[in-house]
Amino acid sequence: MHGTLATMMRPTPISSALRILVPVKRTIDYAVKIRVASDGKGVDTNVKHAMNPFDEIAVEEAVRLREKHKEAVSKITAVSAGPAKSADVLRTALAMGADDAIHVEIPDNSLGGPLEPLAVSKILQAVIKKAGEEEEVGLVIMGKQAIDDDASQTGQMLAARLDWPQATFASKLEFLGKLEKGEEVQITREVDGGLGIVKTTLPFVMTTDLRLNEPRYASLPNIMKAKKKPFKKYSLKDLGLEEDAKPRLEVLKVAEPPKREGGAKVEDVDALVGKLKELGRI
């Protein structure tokens, strides 16, 4: 063609099927007795680690959704940010039923402190954007909190950054229509007074509570199959987040709670009242 410049662009693939992203975190195993580290600024991490229990529930819910709606869920992607050992929990997620994994590798002590919820939300936002180059993410299911910091902030921050609706502390998930963008979803969630029901539309961010489901154990055949599933690695530089991931808080001191003193027995109510008066409680 004379005098004409033809430009070819590859459009982002658009699929009516739902791609689910499940963030998972490597934490100290819930059964391990926590001990304060020798420097008094953290806990001893030279112990057994495992996937954060709330994240196990998130993986299980994503897998159950795919089992129930086989044609509607196209892919389950597990993602984790942390040191090389974080790959262990991604392998566990793959063995439970996730299709592929993304590891944002951050070498130990490279940030000068632990990853904070704001930094994790920025990392997940960048991962969702990168993943969208292949296939758009339509649902994020993640644990309501990690049992190491108990922050319970990442899901809310991610929803705000994506400008998506959020449904936190979910104990039941029901799709009222198809698993497609714009379709209505009903979530039963744990609240202080009991249960609350909210409705929203896809895409959205959901955080899981303990009563949502009971995670399955990964079988040996599935553990072997997990070794062959796609596993991508990114660095903070790849995501343009080298500075954004640095901690904004400094831990000054970590200490064990004071040991509880033994109680005392009294003979009757009068003796109890007298003891309380003696201690200045009444």
TrEMBL record:
The keyword Phosphoprotein does not apply. The keyword Mitochondrion applies. Its main location: mitochondrion. It holds the Pfam family ETF. Residues 39-243 form the Electron transfer flavoprotein alpha/beta-subunit N-terminal domain. Its cofactor is AMP; FAD. The electron transfer flavoprotein serves as a specific electron acceptor for several dehydrogenases, including five acyl-CoA dehydrogenases, glutaryl-CoA and sarcosine dehydrogenase. It transfers the electrons to the main mitochondrial respiratory chain via ETF-ubiquinone oxidoreductase (ETF dehydrogenase). Heterodimer of an alpha and a beta subunit. This is Probable electron transfer flavoprotein subunit beta. It comes from Pseudomicrostroma glucosiphilum.
